[in-house]
Design goal:
By secondary structure, the protein is an alpha/beta fold. The chain contains ten helices and six strands; from the N terminus they run E-H-H-H-H-H-E-H-E-H-H-E-H-E-E-H.
Length: 229
């Protein structure tokens, strides 16, 4: 490729449609746990709570175990559901997330077309349990040159330590020729900018950047990455 040698891919909301997997997982577990129907309105309320907790993780205000159970504790309390179920529900949820695979755009074909032309790596804050299953079921595990999950790395995006560990592991590189592609301004884009690499914000919904994160490229469709590379 002309401009970049290495592409760092976020998973949830970038390569894979996290929203659809989230809805399917929660609805199926509500049935399995005998909690009745999980309506669209309930899912919307959960998504807002979930986003709030992940933002706390990115800011270093909570640990991952705290946010994983805490989000369900708050959600269950608001919906009048027995909070003692939170831990078991979350454990089941991590595995159930990988059962529904919906690709963003044609992300799998895109990654396959880039294999052997650029080095491609997954960089994700998702749990090892969830992401390992997702990557296997989607086929991305065989298309990537490596996978970096925050639980294993020891740092969460956007921490510079996360990216330092990635760079050390993948060997000598020119940071000017490394591109991170992700949907999160506060995690992927802010982290990439802090780490000194180029950033590509995947923004299919046309959201406004209301953060201070430096966006080098902005795309609505993942196929636009080809023109950047």
């Amino acid at each position: 490729m002309k401009n970049f040698d290495v592409v760092l891919w976020d998973v949830d909301g970038t390569l894979l449609n996290f929203s659809e997997a989230e809805k399917a997982a929660i609805r199926s577990l509500f049935s399995e746990f005998g909690l009745g129907e999980c309506t669209d309105e309930m899912l919307s309320r959960y998504s807002d709570i979930n986003r709030k907790y992940w933002n706390r993780l990115e800011r270093g205000e909570m640990t991952k175990p705290e946010i994983l159970v805490g989000r369900f504790a708050e959600f269950f309390a608001a919906e009048g559901i027995e909070p003692s179920l939170c831990k078991r529900f979350n454990e089941a949820y991590q595995l159930r997330l990988g059962d529904t695979i919906v690709f963003c755009d044609n992300s799998k074909e895109l990654a396959a077309s880039l294999a052997g032309k650029v080095r491609q790596y997954v960089v994700s804050n998702g749990t090892v349990a969830a992401q390992t299953k997702k990557l296997k079921n989607s086929g991305f595990d065989k298309l990537m040159d490596g996978v970096f999950l925050s639980e294993e790395v020891g740092y969460e995006k956007p921490a510079k330590g996360f990216f330092d560990c990635v760079f050390e592991e993948i060997g000598p590189l020119d940071k000017d020729r490394v591109l991170i592609v992700g949907d999160s301004l506060t995690s992927d884009i802010a982290g990439g900018a802090c780490a000194g690499i180029r950033t590509c914000w995947y923004n299919p919904g046309g959201s406004v950047n209301d953060t201070e994160a430096r966006v080098d490229f902005e795309i609505r469709d993942l196929n636009e990455v080809l023109g950047i590379l």
